[in-house]
Amino acid sequence: MGIYVELRQIDSSQNINTTLPIDKATPDEIKANRVQSVPFTIVADLKEKALLPPIRGFHSANEILRNLSIYESKKINNKWRNK
Description:
alpha+beta, globular
């Protein structure tokens, strides 16, 4: 499984400690994904062009990967939302 990470920021804070590039989220992106609080993680299956349900709150990378394994093993594709 390959991983691609893209960060979107919804505030104007300059106090972010990351080496990843950060783009400002547009109001349309915030509204379309129903972002109400941060952190807010969206995982997309680029092959299927579908989004998993959002992951809200702080989670380790291992927790997120474990959740992805659960989705894959249960084949919950019918709960994915097409873009």
